[in-house]
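Record now logged underneath.
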Amino acid sequence: MNKKILIIDDDDGVIWVVKKALEPLGYDIEAKTNIKSGIKAVDKVKLILLDLMLPDGSGLDALKEIRVFNPDALVVMVTAHGRMESAIDAMKEGAYDYLEKPFDIEELKITVERAFRDIAMREELLKLRQGKEESMPFRIIGKSKGMIKVFKNIGRVAPKDVTVLISGESGTGKELVALAMHNNSRRKFGPFIAINSASIPKELMEAELFGWERGAFTGAVGKTAGKIQAADGGTLFFDEISELDIDLQAKLLRFLQEQEYSPLGSGKVIKADVRIIGATNKDLKECVKNGLFREDLYYRFNVIEIKLPPLRERNDDVLPLARHFLDESVRTFELPPKDFSKDAAKALTGYNWPGNVRELENTVKRASILSKGSLIERRDMFPNDYNSCSIKEFLEGKLNGFLDKMKKIENSDLYETVVSEVEKALFSIVMKETNGNQVRAAKVLGINRNTLYKKLKEYRLI
């Protein structure tokens, strides 16, 4: 295991003591003396010793940033005597432990050893869980201001065991955000169960959620656990929560308040430790006004709301996302290495993406499979867009079928036929675009007005 420790402390004496105590035990110590340089070094570090008071800010604020950039790292707060209250606040924010200055060397060694044992145990549990469950990609890609704000909110909210509402248009990645929150919470080693409120008929939703006893309804031949029981100790994600039946909303509210429920056909009350995260692409306030969503359940969900920006508002993320989906497609479909041409990259960032990230993913996957060369062109992604190909490519595509038929006809005057038909179509289009103004049409075409007039007469366009 990587035994690297990062210490962020402006006291050279503390850094010296830590190195002298831990380096002989095989630990690799890196030291930074302020928050700015420390945050840059947190990536891939498993254990961080963080001073509570630093020259450029508070260690509590630094702790929140660390949990955004490296949520798996364990952070031990280092505090001077008399600052125990702040250390307790740090524990509430997700710190692993705290040490008091001046250090007791043995206590330092014991704390560090215990931290690395816990790290090893967590990694082993995670491997076991991933081996049993179907793998699901949950990496969120983004560097735009809107997504950085989302990442920070995930870091702040994930450790808190509160109900969360994730809002955003369809295809923005609401389930990925819910999964990221689960993986950055104390429940990360528990199950993550997703349920779509819109895809399950309302008459089956209650049974799906709470489970049932044998004979609870026609066809209930055996006792079956519901999604809540399956999510015990973990997270239950309600996608499209606004579509949940109004009567079932009351039962969900009771569970949120009491953390207990009864399966269908049973009077038995069962406790369950489940965190609920909801998602919606609708305005829940409007749903409340229209009587489609309970007001009390709305306020229960609206404790914390994370809003996902649509892809058209995070243009900086389009190309990184597209390249991620392309790499994924090349690996999944066993394709040769591919990349986007300059024109294709320009087209990607210039498109509005009404279907958001989901539309981008599907577009890239389709193009990766259908493109012939190592470069994906604009026409591979937007085949119905006339701007996606050159005039030569467009004409070739349209003429191929026509030419195959004409070649079978003797004395077909192929050249004259094609040239005259293309020319006739061109003059007709330009005349419509210029509202029949021959002076403007001649200028657009780049020909003499008299030549235009003769052609228009020849093709009977006037």
Observations:
- Residues 4-131 form a domain with the Rossmann fold fold (CATH 3.40.50.2300).
- Residues 1 and 120 are 8 Å apart (CA to CA).
- The chain has a mean pLDDT of 85.
- The radius of gyration is 31 Å.
